[in-house]
Amino acid sequence: MSKEDFGGGSLLIAWQLKGKNVLIIGGGEVASQRIASILVTDAHITVISPIEGLNPRTKQLIESYAHRITHYNRVFFGTADFEGMDMILTALDDVEISRAICQMSRAAKIPVNAADIPDSCDFYFGSQIRDGPLQIMISTNGNGPKMANLIRRKVEKALTGIEGEAIAKVGELRERLKVRAPGVGGAIGKRRMKWMTNLCNAWTLEDLVLLDGETMEKLLDEGWENDCVPSPATLGSRQQSSINGIFPRWGTAYAPTIGLVVGVLCATLVIISKRR
Ligand SMILES: C[C@@]1(CC(=O)O)c2cc3[nH]c(cc4nc(cc5[nH]c(cc(n2)[C@H]1CCC(=O)O)[C@@](C)(CC(=O)O)[C@@H]5CCC(=O)O)C(CC(=O)O)=C4CCC(=O)O)c(CCC(=O)O)c3CC(=O)O
Ligand SMILES: NC(=O)C1=CN([C@@H]2O[C@H](COP(=O)(O)OP(=O)(O)OC[C@H]3O[C@@H](n4cnc5c(N)ncnc54)[C@H](O)[C@@H]3O)[C@@H](O)[C@H]2O)C=CC1
Fold first, then answer.
1. For the chain, how far is it from start to end, CA to CA, in angstroms?
2. CATH number, domain at 136?
3. What is the pLDDT, as a whole number, of residue 143?
């Protein structure tokens, strides 16, 4: 990044909303997308909208997640509705009410997003790719939402589909490592970070996906304790790096199918040669 690149952007962060309260004012199509995005975070959702204004997906989400979504069948009353809220989203077909809500939210110091007024938003939503713990957001910073949607499709095609699973395994391994070598910061923190970095550099996604609890402990015994990163092949039967070497991207997914096809071909050749 050159010096001239600073400025004109927005902060991309993974906002932790678990246990927080999010108010959504409006219950139409955009609100249904907001509800889905917020449900992922384990926040509690309050939706304010007259029932006749709810679109079918919003209705279905409110019914299916009744324990996590409180719906008030009425219009927005005013700042009394902000009580206890940590975030406010408007998805209204009335820009004047939306603008007024933004002003009230700002006065109450609660972050606000208005679907119809980019200039009044404290933050924007983006096009999302989710695969377990992997979260990718594409943002055009308000310039072209449809372009964000199109670029998301391109990025989706570039992924193998096993990144999320591999990251989840790395997460589990990091937890086990912290149990074995506890402590925050200092020399232990440095050593943990170096070891994890070396492991992630050396192992493929396919290698990581194959890790189970037992192999993780073995990896820590042989790797962490001896300050080295063993190759997957040395760690036991589930780590079949030879398959991954031949089919690095689809080894785990297609290896059984490829084995079956090769087997059937061989059997056919044997039958044909016997008939002759
Ligand atoms: C500023 C922002 C505020 C915010 O919503 O946070 C905003 C604002 C507005 N969007 C409008 C229109 C459309 N929005 C979409 C779609 C999405 N919009 C999303 C985000 C954002 N939209 C934020 C900026 C994000 C960024 O810049 O990257 C996405 C990425 C995420 C999401 O909404 O969750 C989601 C795609 C998700 C996906 O597919 O993955 C489509 C396409 C479609 O529906 O298929 C259209 C029609 C085509 C078009 O206009 O491009 C209008 C009306 C404009 C008008 O009246 O002319 C406004 C208001 C305005 O711009 O004035
Ligand atoms: N940011 C984005 O990605 C997009 C934004 N938009 C904009 O978002 C806005 C909402 O779009 P849609 O959801 O499609 O509209 P919609 O017409 O489907 O929904 C509007 C909702 O607002 C509710 N409502 C109206 N007045 C209310 C009040 N005083 N209190 C509580 N609820 C009230 C209605 O009951 C209804 O549920 C529009 O202004 C549109 O231009 C549209 C597409 C994408």
1. 69
2. 3.30.160
3. 98
What is the widest separation between alpha-carbon atoms in the chain? 89
**Rounded to 5 degrees, what angle do the CA atoms 258, 260, 263 make?**
110
Number of Cβ within 10 Å of residue 56's Cβ equals 9
Q: How many CB atoms lie within 10 A of CB 196?
A: 16
Give this complex's ipTM. 0.98
Pocket test for ligand 2, best of 23, 59, 82, 93 (most atoms within 8 A of CB): 93
Q: Residues 163, 173: contact at Cβ < 8 Å?
A: no
What pLDDT does 187 receive?
A: 96
Residue ranges making up the domain that contains 53: 9-125
Within this chain, do residues 49 and 109 fall inside the same structural domain, yes or no?
yes
Give the dihedral of Cα atoms 105, 123, 44, 101; nearest 10 deg: 30
Has 116 been annotated as catalytic? yes
Pick the catalytic residue: 5, 116, 207, 221? 116
Between CA 246 and CA 90 the distance in angstroms is: 51
**pTM check: above 0.90:** no
User: Cα 176 from chain centroid?
Assistant: 22
φ/ψ bin of 183: left (φ > 0), alpha (ψ from -120 to 50), beta (otherwise)? left
Domain stops at, among 159, 175, 205: 159
Residue 274 lies in a domain: no
Same domain, 57 and 43: yes
Could you tell me the distance, in angstroms and rounded to a whole number, from the CA of residue 145 to the centre of ligand 1?
4
In which residue ranges of the chain is pLDDT below 50? 241-253
